Amino acid sequence: MRRVNFDLDVLRTFVTGIELGSYAKASDRLGRSTSAVSAQLKKLEEQAGTPVLRKSGRGMVLTEAGETMLAYARRLLELNDEAAAALHGTELEGWVRLGLQEDFGESLLTDVLGRFARAHPRVRVEVRIARNTELLERVTSGRLDLALAWDAGVLSPHVDRLGEVPLRWISAAGAGMPWPANEPLPLVMLEAPCMMRSAATAALDRAHVPWRIAFTSASLAGTWAAVAAGLGVSLRTPLGLPTTVQALSPHETPLPALGSLGLCLHRAEAESSAPVQRLATLLAQQWQGLSVAA
Length: 294
Hints:
Belongs to the LysR transcriptional regulatory family. This is LysR family transcriptional regulator. It comes from Dyella jiangningensis. This protein has helices spanning 8-20, 23-30, 34-48, 64-88, 105-110, 112-119, 132-140, 195-206, 220-228, 274-293; strands spanning 53-56, 59-62, 94-100, 123-129, 146-150, 158-166, 168-172, 185-190, 211-217, 234-236, 245-248, 260-267. By secondary structure, the protein is α/β, with parallel strands linked by helices. It folds into three domains: 8-88, Winged helix-like DNA-binding domain superfamily/Winged helix DNA-binding domain (Arc Repressor Mutant, subunit A, Orthogonal Bundle), CATH 1.10.10.10; 94-165 and 262-293, D-Maltodextrin-Binding Protein, domain 2; 168-258, 3-Layer(aba) Sandwich (D-Maltodextrin-Binding Protein, domain 2), CATH 3.40.190. The longest helix is centred in the first third of the chain and has 25 residues, at 64-88. It is globular and about 60 Å long. It starts with 7 loop residues before the first helix and ends with a helix.
């Protein structure tokens, strides 16, 4: 069997177009003409030996082979970028103080921060897991360099809005909605003040759905344990969920839909140090992958 050597430049164009939702946007981002991007996609399909995209209305969507190709392309590009950073980025030194929501602790700590630490061993990273109010207060006062936080309508002086994630009702895995309609809906929530707790109760009140707080936790781990045990439903995004719970799609539940929630990357300073800038770039890139998956 003939070995195929995929062109990393072509793979980067392919991935960028999927993550931006448009190959016209990808051509602008990558500084290439639309004809050059089309030629690269044709080359990729020739190398793959099968179509990776198909027409859907006015746009293009992934084929089954394209979905497989996307997963491998991301892995190849991440390894390539990690190798480049390791060879050219060892001169980076310093200190980065990062704040995260609990939702992103597992995925980001094991992926982004692992790659960052391997590529820049002389940079010391300190991470604080906290809720929105504390993250914003710490980055504004300069006690954090970066903070990845939900958009609560309060902006810091230096902030980039990364995108949005749908809000979903969360139940035990495989449980659906087991509570009778004539009984108050049991809610499993974080301690107040909590923006998602407020959003859930306000939406239920508007829909005239009776509810009660069945379980209150100071952490997401406690929340997921209570939901998995069948004590009630919660409200969160589909990101970072353990396998013991599930996000209900709108057609699976009579509960009111809640739209989406923005995610922001806050910086303590307009001109950050090189280590802070590098980590901010990795976080933004990781977010693109998470948002596509969500």
